[in-house]
Write a structure and sequence with these properties.
14 strands; single chain; 3 domains; alpha+beta; five-stranded antiparallel beta sheet
């Protein structure tokens, strides 16, 4: 079954075409608007120049209007003189002189007075004469008697001039716009090329290859995108390695206890004595407990990888976390005859951390103390969780102390690595050597300093986490 493919029309535009369109279209519209405005201004002033020449002709005609003895008006020009006065090499000029009552005094009888304008003088308008549109200037005079002069001419020269202005203005603009579009296309292609190279590098990358991709430093945005992709690849690589390591640890470490459980079960099945069955079942329960503890610790290591990538530090009440954790371990401590207590919980103390990691640190340290940090005499078994706050340095110290045999300085480095155990763990044949390794990993993620030492009396083991620059007291 093939997947449906989108039609070419439905595909989104490329970044290059979008940038080119978003630049060229507004620029072209702006240039077009500017050109139209420039042409409008040029046409207006050109029209003013032609109208001024037309008005000068009207004044020239009006200057030859004379009175006669009978009290009327006459135009004191012959036909030849009028032809010379109104001569234009390129245009045809027509005129008419009208008396106040509308009678034609001289000129072309078909050239009518424009109806618009009223008494405004001088005025300009378009008139129809001999099936042609003419530009007319109307001049009204009151001396020696009221009369009106109309001078009109064709607009061929004006139209040709405007066409030349239009061609001269638009042609360079269009050529410049085409040149700019081609230049922008090349420049945008060069600027987008690093992004296309990054896309190709990611598309061709093998799913198992988490090495950083090559990032171009030509533009800061592409460089940041490449750095973000590389950071994502690092996180994915860490997650994949953590999963592989977890799977390998589970497969390796569970093989021995599960084989032991199977051997115990097979031995019990081969016996007919109920006492042997009971003894073997007790051994199976102990092996199952050790296997469950191992799985919990392996899951804790997997949580450390997740916490570093996902969980965000929050302002948490450290004293409340300590109280809740102590309550979970009280029953076990009572069964072992251990005095499980706390110090420094009378004042609220806050730290910036992840609650799940703090709880994981306390669970592992208390579990280790209850397993390996107990003296032989039940009356002297003490495990204490302590919170110390130093306002002068803004430091918060979380410690777990026991009064057991402790570990030597030579062993302290080894117990912080995975599968490393102290002498007590080796002697008891318990645990897997992951407890302090988990605490060390959690401390690194929390940004805290992990230290191993002894109590003030020089007894047992004291494991401390130092949180610096904390908003400690609430």
């Amino acid at each position: 079954m093939s997947l449906p493919t989108a039609s070419p029309a439905a595909l989104p535009r490329s970044l290059r075409s979008r940038l080119l369109r978003h630049v060229i279209v507004p620029l072209a519209l702006t240039w077009l608007l500017g050109t139209l405005l420039a042409l409008g201004v040029a046409r207006y002033f050109t029209q003013q120049a032609f109208d001024r020449a037309l008005l000068d002709d009207a004044y020239a005609v009006a200057s030859h209007v004379r009175t006669v003895d009978e009290g009327g008006l006459t135009l004191g020009l012959t036909a030849a003189e009028i032809g010379t006065l109104l001569f234009d090499q390129n245009e045809s000029i027509f005129f008419a002189v009208y008396l106040q009552d509308g009678r034609l005094l001289a000129g072309h009888s078909g050239l009518k007075l424009p109806e618009d304008g009223g008494l405004v003088s001088p005025r300009f308008s378009e008139v129809m004469f001999q099936n042609r549109v003419l530009r007319a200037a109307v001049l009204a005079r009151q001396q020696p008697l009221p009369y009106t002069v109309v001078v009109a001419q064709t607009t061929n020269s004006q139209d040709r001039l405007f066409q030349r202005l239009l061609f001269i203005s638009l042609t360079p603009q269009v050529l410049l716009l085409i040149w700019l579009a081609l230049w922008l296309r090349r420049v945008i292609q060069d600027d987008v090329q690093p992004l296309m190279d990054l896309e190709q590098a990611v598309a061709q990358r093998d799913a198992r290859d988490f090495t950083p991709v090559k990032v171009s430093s030509r533009t800061r945005d592409v460089q940041r995108l490449g750095e973000a992709i590389n950071a994502l690849l690092v996180r994915i690589g860490q997650s994949v390695r953590a999963q592989k390591e977890f799977a390998g640890n589970v497969a390796h470490e569970l093989r021995t206890p599960l084989a032991g459980v199977r051997a115990l079960a097979e031995y019990a099945l081969s016996q007919s004595d109920p006492k042997v069955w009971q003894e073997q079942l007790r051994s199976i329960a102990q092996s199952q407990e050790r296997a469950s503890h191992l799985i919990d610790q392996l899951l804790a290591l997997a949580l450390a990888e997740e916490a570093e990538q996902v969980l965000q530090p929050q302002r948490i009440a450290l004293d409340e976390v300590v109280r809740d954790t102590l309550m979970r371990h009280l029953h076990r401590a009572d069964a072992l005859g251990v005095d499980l207590g706390a110090r420094g919980l009378d004042v609220p103390v806050f730290v910036l951390a992840q609650r799940a990691l703090i709880e994981g640190v306390l669970d592992n340290l208390i579990d280790n103390a209850l397993r390996y940090g107990l003296p032989e005499a039940p009356s002297e078994r003490h495990v204490t969780v302590e919170i110390a706050h130093d306002p002068s340095t803004a430091q918060v110290v979380l410690s777990v102390l026991d009064n057991g045999p402790g570990i030597t300085e030579a062993q302290r480095t080894r117990v912080l690595s995975r599968w490393g155990q102290g002498s007590a763990g080796e002697a008891l044949k318990q645990g897997s050597g992951l407890g302090l390794a988990i605490v060390s990993e959690y401390a690194r993620i929390l940004g805290a300093t992990l230290t191993l030492g002894t109590s003030a009396e020089g007894l047992g083991l004291k494991v401390s986490l130092v949180f610096a620059d904390q908003p400690s007291v609430g």
